[in-house]
């Protein structure tokens, strides 16, 4: 009988497969889509250009990602981060340098104080068991939005931190608890790192796109990957686990599940999962974000000393913009993040309306040259049936204290991976890799 069936060919499933392959175990990967990568998706165009429609950045302390890049000979480069950023508040466009926008001094002091306060609070949360913090119940029942509102004394500080955090969590701040936010920050080390390019989670990009890495990781065991194999049911007994879908059935000693929680909730388990796990996977929702790309012959804004970064209030469809051009600026790409309610409204418009909305903003920021893009593309994983949203699963309010580590706990022969099963870099590709490697390790330990 085969040793392991891995469900899901995202970074987590592939990271698990890689460990099992090195340990000479027999396994297959069942992947619903016709490609690897899941929430990482590099769209490659006929003219040789590429865009990362899913995850794209890595940064310091994401040690597994850097080690994998080294092992597979995948190059990375610094995210462009020079010059003036744009602040677009109240229909006024201002430029500023550095991480914190040019707003009035009271708002600046308030922001600085609040960021420090959140850093201090997150530092004390044990990422491996956030429910054990003495104030976990209180924090888990406060909405992040209420906490931010209570601690902001000006409208500007409230706006800046709200839009920054929406970009970090990919959701409206009323959808998560303070505890989930603090856990997420701690799992990625600190808030400053999560919002920064330099020395932060947005520091590097992969040459050729993030999918290059996952494809190379899987190259040695391509024949073991079954594409277009969405799993519908998992049945385990004392000796084995049976995994089935439309037109296929496999059996193995163990299974690793490496898919987003809402999709795990749609699999029929027999016997049923424990009630803790089952209730949790049915309550975790996914974040909502769209990535919008305006492509130019060159990153012309750099000549006028603009970084390509912007932070904007509700009158813009985009919370934040970044320069997402490839290495050496071979062509120019501005990436806009539209998140939560803004994403909902934005994707109701036609493609042409969406393009015009982004163009208008770029002309406002960077002048007439912005009027001549070579292409516009946008993408949201919310519309993808095998993702249902992103960047990651959002614990329900009160969820950490009620369900604790139910998500990552094995259920007999079923082991749990995916970025949502990681206590380090939860929500990030690094977290996906770590969880996949951990799940594979749990199976290897069992059998040694
Ligand atoms: C727009 C966007 C931007 C992001 N930016 C970043 C970033 O810059 N840096 C970063 O570190 N992270 C980023 N992330 C998050 C990161 O991409 C994810 O955390 C990570 O890729 C998750 O990997 P995973 O393997 O856990 O899950 P997934 O990538 O979701 O993989 C799960 C796989 O399982 C498959 N699947 C689902 N259901 C079934 C089923 N029933 N049967 C079989 N297969 C199934 C799916 O098709 C998918 O391939 C971003 C995500 C998005 C969407």
Give the domain tally.
3
Count of alpha/pi helices: 15
User: Gap between N and C termini, in Å?
Assistant: 17 Å
CATH superfamily of the largest domain: FAD/NAD(P)-binding domain
Rg value: 22 Å
Which spans of ≥5 residues are poorly predicted at pLDDT below 50? none
Molecular shape: globular
Q: Specify the CATH class of the largest domain.
A: Alpha Beta
Main beta-sheet annotation: 8 strands, mixed
The CATH architecture of the largest domain would be 3-Layer(bba) Sandwich
How are the secondary structure elements laid out?
Layout: E1 2-7, H1 11-22, E2 27-30, E3 42-44, E4 50-52, E5 57-58, H2 63-71, E6 76-78, E7 84-89, E8 92-96, H3 105-123, H4 136-140, H5 144-151, H6 155-169, H7 178-187, H8 191-195, E9 204-206, H9 211-218, E10 225-226, E11 233-236, E12 241-245, E13 248-257, H10 261-264, E14 268-270, H11 275-283, E15 285-286, E16 289-296, E17 306-312, E18 320-323, E19 332-339, H12 341-346, H13 351-366, E20 375-380, E21 393-394, H14 399-403, E22 414-416, H15 429-447
Parallel strand pairs: 1-2, 1-13, 2-10, 7-17, 11-14, 13-22
Antiparallel strand pairs: 3-4, 5-9, 6-9, 7-8, 11-12, 12-13, 15-21, 16-19, 16-20, 17-18, 18-19
Helix pairs in contact: 1-15, 3-6, 3-7
Bound molecules: flavin-adenine dinucleotide (FAD).
Flavin-adenine dinucleotide binds next to α1, β16 and α15.
């Amino acid at each position: 009988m085969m040793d392991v069936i891995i469900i899901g060919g995202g970074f987590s499933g592939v990271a698990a497969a890689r460990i099992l392959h090195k340990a000479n175990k027999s396994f297959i990967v069942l992947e619903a889509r016709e490609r690897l990568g899941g929430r990482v998706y590099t769209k490659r165009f006929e003219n040789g250009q590429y865009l990362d429609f899913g995850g794209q950045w890595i940064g310091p302390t994401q040690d597994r990602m850097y080690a994998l890049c080294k092992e597979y000979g995948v190059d990375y480069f610094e995210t462009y981060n020079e010059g003036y950023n744009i602040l677009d508040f109240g229909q006024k466009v201002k430029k500023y340098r550095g991480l914190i926008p040019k707003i009035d001094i009271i708002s600046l002091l308030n922001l600085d104080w609040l960021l420090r306060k959140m850093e201090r609070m997150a530092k004390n949360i044990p990422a491996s068991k956030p429910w054990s913090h003495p104030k976990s119940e209180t924090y888990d029942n406060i909405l992040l939005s209420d906490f931010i509102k209570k601690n902001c004394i000006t409208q500007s500080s409230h706006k800046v931190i709200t839009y920054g955090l929406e970009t970090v969590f990919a959701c409206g701040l009323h959808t998560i608890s303070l505890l989930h936010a603090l856990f997420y920050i701690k799992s990625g080390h600190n808030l400053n790192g999560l919002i920064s390019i330099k020395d932060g989670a947005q520091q590097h990009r992969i040459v050729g796109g993030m999918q290059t890495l996952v494809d190379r990781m899987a190259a040695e065991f391509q024949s073991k990957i079954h594409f277009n194999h969405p799993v519908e049911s998992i049945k385990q007994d004392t000796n084995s686990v049976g995994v089935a879908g439309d037109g296929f059935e496999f059996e193995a000693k163990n299974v690793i599940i490496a898919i987003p929680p809402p999709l795990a909730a749609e699999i029929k388990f027999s016997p049923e999962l424990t009630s803790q796990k089952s209730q949790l996977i049915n309550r975790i929702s996914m974040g909502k974000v769209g990535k919008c790309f305006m492509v130019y012959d060159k990153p012309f804004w750099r000549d006028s000393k603009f970084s390509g970064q912007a932070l904007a209030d509700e009158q813009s469809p985009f919370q934040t913009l970044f320069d997402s051009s490839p290495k050496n600026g071979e062509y120019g790409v501005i990436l806009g993040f539209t998140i939560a309610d803004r994403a909902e409204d934005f994707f109701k418009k036609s493609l042409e309306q969406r393009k015009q909305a982004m163009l208008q903003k770029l002309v406002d920021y960077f002048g007439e040259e912005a009027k001549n893009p070579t292409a516009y593309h946008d993408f949201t994983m919310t519309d993808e049936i095998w993702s249902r949203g992103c960047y990651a699963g959002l614990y329900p309010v009160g969820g950490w204290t009620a369900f604790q580590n139910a998500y990552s706990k094995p259920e007999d022969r079923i082991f749990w991976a995916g970025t949502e099963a990681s206590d380090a870099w939860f929500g990030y590709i690094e977290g996906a890799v770590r969880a996949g490697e951990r799940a594979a390790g749990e199976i290897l330990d069992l059998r040694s």
